Amino acid sequence: MPGTVPEKTQAQPPAPELRRDPITGEWVILAAGRSVRPHAPGGRVSAPAPEELLDQCPLCPGREELTPPEICAVREGGGRDCPGWSVRTLPNKFPILVSGAPHAGSEKIASNGRRPALGSSEVIVDTPLHNKPPWEIGAPQVKEMLEMYQERIRALKNQSRTSYVHIIRNHGRGAASSLEHPHSQLFGLPFVPPDIDSELDGFAAASADKAGCILCRMIGEVEEKGELVVMESESFLVFCPFASRLPYEAWIVPRSHQPGFEECTKLDELADLFTSFMLRLKKRLDDPPFNYWIHTYPLKDESRPYHWHIEVLPRLTTPGGLELGAGVWVNIVAPEQAAAELR
Amino acid sequence: MPGTVPEKTQAQPPAPELRRDPITGEWVILAAGRSVRPHAPGGRVSAPAPEELLDQCPLCPGREELTPPEICAVREGGGRDCPGWSVRTLPNKFPILVSGAPHAGSEKIASNGRRPALGSSEVIVDTPLHNKPPWEIGAPQVKEMLEMYQERIRALKNQSRTSYVHIIRNHGRGAASSLEHPHSQLFGLPFVPPDIDSELDGFAAASADKAGCILCRMIGEVEEKGELVVMESESFLVFCPFASRLPYEAWIVPRSHQPGFEECTKLDELADLFTSFMLRLKKRLDDPPFNYWIHTYPLKDESRPYHWHIEVLPRLTTPGGLELGAGVWVNIVAPEQAAAELR
User: How confident is the model at residue B160 (pLDDT cuts 50, 70, 90)?
Assistant: First the structure.
């Protein structure tokens, strides 16, 4: 996340590393450098966050010199790191995944369950307006954001170090957002993350049972019964999944089978539906904190089938020891009720 | 969680049910009745929580009539549902797992990925004092709490519907605690939860590789290097795991191999160490919100090896879209640093 403190005054943080849990085999990202982030959520590990002042926001147009040089941007009239952009992608100033081995000797740790955290951490500033997320500007702005997501996935396909691109938005402090200016984040991961791996296994198992694509089947059932449908368009459906983990969880899916998000060519239609849904969510749930992420196909050779979707999770309850300690989610709002309220 | 509203004035909530995610196969607990809890965390789904007044706390001695009849208690001089107890176990007034099929026809939903949420939801009131968790009273109170944990695990072994007993504590609102009076919670689950299943697979894989018990090996390595050790006693070790998911995560483990927590006979020693560690955590991290849970052996036939441990996770940061959407944890404090600060 970009910060407001000029780089020269900060000590170089240690390079992030991956550590493998010896029991489960899952990788954790150790990014101790992030504890000096000026706006770390939680606020107890880092110094207290100062009031984030509009006239200091590093993501606003006119303050491009406060961020690392941009990776790419949509900007009429050309130029780099200057105002005039509508969407702008930057390297994260506090990266949890890095492009090379920035410290001498860091290759040495590629053993004993440790390795350098190689990958990409990017910030997509998806609106020039500090107080308006893209959907409050309008569908054309959302379309530009979605196009940028696709462009970055395509660009990272050429990086040998990246196996999966995870694109997210944390909206509101209760959903771990650390900067007020609307932005998305991209993580180019050097492995397929556990939640995607688990879904790929599920798709493969259904396919082996000759049930075809499990998400295509779910979509058919949702459309047939109707009670889980939130909204729809010709090519896309928004619904609350039958086994929602959290109240008002919603998925945005293409009705026709499509493995990777970057293959989607109907961005005008998707942007319209996405915009409508986001405005509805804000209105019906009183501008809740939420996360969304794109679940999509891995970048590398993958034999298991998949069907991309966007998952939106309002953060209205706090997970406790049953969720975090056992992996069992307790949902206190029935998805049928949630869908009815969001319709 | 027990509430302050007398039972008669509340509408009967719908029976909780289990729903299976069609893609991952994991079970979610749908407990819509909990949305009327007087003190639901998050505070947006339910009505605003009233100030919890000491003179209304339903878990304090003298107000036993406000809770469902107790399951068991440690009480000098005998009696039931009356003062004089030091530890008291109750059915949860807002259960997410229930002992029978409370509504006509609920067996019918045992199909299409739905089934009644059969199991147990219990509240262990582990101190009579409203403002003092057991470790602030002293090690003998902690020992009584640990003994109660063991007693409940043993009792639930005789229930055919329960496959795993998950015992947790949510401490502080930031860790999803909804009542101030110190208490633990027990969930008798009708399946082995995903996080335990995944650990069991890890233990089995290590054992098949002739590496023996993976946790015994981890303990040996931690003791040899020393930098992850927080505190220790003759039979137990407290350490920050190498691949900690969150800042200051700590595990309390028996040094000698032991599958199930209820087999532990050294409760005096464990209570002493647990008490010291909890007081240390409070002092060094300024009374942080935290969760702890016991990871232990399943109740039913299980061929995979295991080694019980208690995991303690301070809640200093907010998980976002990378943690919740990909299952990848980002830790901003190195466990070596965390252990040094907690020593």
Answer: confident
Residue A73 forms part of a structural domain: yes
Q: If DSSP codes are grouped into helix, strand and coil, which group holds residue B206?
A: helix
Searching chain A, which residue's CA lies closest to the CA of residue B21?
A: A243
Residue A9 lies in a domain: no
State which residues form the domain around A282. 14-36+55-92+117-343
Under DSSP, the state recorded for A226 is -
Residue B340's contacts (CB-CB under 8 Å, 6 or more residues apart) are: B227
Close Cβ partners of A285 (under 8 Å, ≥ 6 residues apart): A248, A314, A316, B44
Report how far residue A37's alpha carbon sits from residue B330's, in angstroms, rounded to the nearest whole number. 14
Q: Are strands A290-295 and A164-171 parallel, antiparallel or unpaired?
A: antiparallel
Cα nearest neighbour of B305 on chain A = A23
> Which pair of structure tokens corresponds to residue A4?
């407001």
Q: Which residues of A touch B32 (CB under 8 A)?
A: 331-334, 337
Give the start-end residues of each E strand in A39-119: 72-75, 85-91, 114-116
Q: How high is the ipTM of this complex?
A: 0.91
* B166 contact residues in A (CB cutoff 8 A): 321-322, 325-326, 328
Closest residue, chain B, to A315 (C-alpha): B42
Considering only CB atoms, A34 lies closest to which of B168, B189, B332, namely: B332
Angle (CA) A285-A41-A37 rounded to 5° is: 145
Cβ–Cβ under 8 Å, residues A126 and A151: no
Parallel/antiparallel/unpaired status of strands A27-30 and B330-331: parallel
Which tens digits make up the pLDDT trace of B287-342? Answer: 999 999 999 999 988 999 999 999 999 999 999 999 999 999 999 999 999 999 99
| A108 domain residue, yes or no | no
CATH of the domain at A237: 3.30.428.10
**Count of domains in chain A?**
1
Give chain A's end-to-end CA distance (angstroms, integer): 35
pTM, entire model: 0.91
In a domain, B50, yes or no: no
